[in-house]
Amino acid sequence: MSENTSEILAGGAVLAVAAGFLFYAAQGTGLFAGATDNYDLRASFQSAEGITVGTDVRLAGVKVGTVSKIDLNPQTFYADATLTLREQVQIPDDSAALVSSEGLLGGNYIELRPGGSPDNLPAGAEIEDTQGSVSLIGLLMKFVGKSAEDAMAQ
User: Fold this and answer.
1) Could you read off the pLDDT of 106-123 as tens digits, one per residue?
2) pTM of the model
3) Domain extents for the chain?
């Protein structure tokens, strides 16, 4: 009977540790953040390549929110994104939202560049100044094409 008891205790300890890890991971991803702690802003991008639901929204390199929704606008053919930001982070109404990359092998994220206006964007407002993602392949093709034209001109 003591062998069964020790196995039950060991199994319970393993389950408790696993539950602790799950709780810690859920807190880190903002899963338990209350709806009152956040507010939404909208932004429309010509190209949102690499951006999905859950992508980080950063201000000065610090994560201040996530992308909570992204859809194609059938009238403008732009990607309409909903950005969920922490309530403590208030963005001036002349701010910009850019799709940025962490590097050649890193993922993309939304970078917020605050403007200088004394007025902040209210919840549900749209960030007008946006810049979509830049295709690395497209840039390389322009560079190669320009180099080939220069070589033929000589």
Assistant:
1) 788 999 999 999 999 999
2) 0.66
3) 1-32, 35-134
